[in-house]
TrEMBL record:
One of its GO terms (molecular function) is phosphatase activity. InterPro entries: Bact_Sigma-Reg, GAF-like_dom_sf, PPM-type-like_dom_sf, PPM-type_phosphatase-like_dom. It holds the Pfam family SpoIIE. It comes from the Bacteria. Keywords: Hydrolase. It comes from Winogradskya consettensis. Residues 161-379 form the PPM-type phosphatase domain. This is PPM-type phosphatase domain-containing protein.
Length: 381
């Protein structure tokens, strides 16, 4: 309780970099020699000590380490005298708490350390906007301004509540400009949207910012899917004549499993039941946002009933149009095979997204030609 009290004191007057020395101070109260908060980098390749951690700047790789195992599975892991606990803010994976113990922990200490890890995650999440220590830790190279703008618009990568889970990933994380996603849980409805803006750089990020915030404004005003589409379309046409954004605008009723969506010039989602692909959803059902005025009819809304455990994978064309060195497209078939394999292996959804984007980056030899964004929606996971 004394360790909890000292950490809670950080809530009122502290910066993010005040957390590492506080963890060092409370370590003896936890039966530990040392406690380190490790943050995941933007590329989700390595875990790094939070800025301000004394005498430690070494990375722990996500793959092939016990710290990484704890991050990948979101479960505790132990390697000799070192215990690793996932730092989870809701369902969002922030990193791992590394605890170097004096002796083998009993069940009570393990439970207590999980509470400490949960508290540390909350402190990181609440303090991160009061300073740049978390961002400086997560960034391993300079971030382009367009990407800075987009990342500051996005919700956490992973969300779980109300019998549903949403998780997403973006790449190239330091230079993304035209892709974005959003979600919200309101009552029994999960709202999800994926956007792919024409162009790149600052102009694309400005258009994406308008699109995201118009979508949120429409949603928060209580507009239905069709009127949300019309609102975004109107504002894009007014502010950026001739520009357009492809999108999936969707709603999932978590009480019934009813999934309704508009495909605005966008690739159709993958729909899998277990690991079995279902019939492709029709696309497009509307013109891209910004071009809707060219057809005098309402946007088409597709409705499908999900079953428990169904998975939907939304993606931008940067995923399927990734090219190998010999020019071969990654394509829908490879995407489907990849997702099926991960579902068979029971890979957690957030980890599936991490592995997918690394597969795409590797397929293009580390240099993406286009923004690549994907999101998973699961009902009653």
């Amino acid at each position: 309780m004394e360790a909890v009290r000292r950490l809670l004191d950080l809530r009122h007057r502290s910066r993010p970099e005040d957390l590492p020395p506080a963890l060092t101070a409370v370590a003896p109260l936890l039966g530990a020699v040392r406690v380190v908060a490790l943050m995941i980098d933007y590329e989700q390749i390595s875990l790094w000590p939070l800025h301000g951690t004394p005498a430690d700047n070494a990375a722990r790789k996500v793959d092939h380490t016990m710290a990484g195992h704890s991050f990948r599975t979101a479960e505790p892991a132990q390697d000799g005298s070192c215990l690793y606990l996932p730092l989870l803010h809701g369902a969002e994976r922030l990193g791992v708490l590394e605890v170097w113990l004096v002796s083998e922990p009993d069940d009570r200490l393990r439970r207590d350390l999980r509470v400490i890890a949960a508290l540390v995650a909350e402190l990181i999440a609440s303090r991160r906007f009061y300073g740049d220590a978390v961002e400086r830790t997560r960034r391993r190279m300079p971030m382009q301004l367009a990407a800075e703008i987009i990342w500051n618009q996005l919700p956490p990568l992973t969300f779980a509540a109300n019998d549903a889970l949403v998780t997403a990933v973006l790449e190239p994380c330091y230079d993304v400009g035209g892709d974005a996603f959003d979600y919200a849980a309101n009552g029994d409805i999960i709202h999800v949207a994926l956007f792919d803006t024409v162009g790149h750089g600052i102009s694309a990020s400005a258009l994406t910012t308008l699109t995201l915030n118009t979508y949120r404004n429409a949603r928060r005003s209580g507009l239905d899917l069709a009127d949300t589409y019309r609102s975004i379309d109107k504002w894009i046409r007014a502010q950026y004549p001739g520009a357009f954004v492809t999108a999936i605008l969707a709603e999932l009723d978590t009480t019934t499993g009813c999934y309704r969506r508009i495909a605005a010039g966008h690739p159709a989602e993958l729909h899998l039941r277990g690991d079995v692909p279902q019939e492709a959803l029709p696309t497009p059902t509307a013109l891209p946002l910004g071009l809707g005025h060219m057809i005098n009819r309402p946007p088409g809304i597709t409705e499908v009933m999900l079953e428990e455990g169904d998975t939907l994978v939304l993606y931008t064309d940067g995923i399927t149009e990734a090219r190998s060195a010999d020019g071969e497209l990654f394509g829908l078939d490879q995407l489907t095979d990849f997702v099926r394999g991960e579902l068979r292996a029971k890979t957690p959804a957030a980890e599936l997204m991490r592995r997918l984007i690394h597969t795409i980056v590797s397929y293009e030899n580390g240099e993406l030609r286009d923004d690549a964004t994907a999101a998973v929606v699961r009902w009653r996971p």
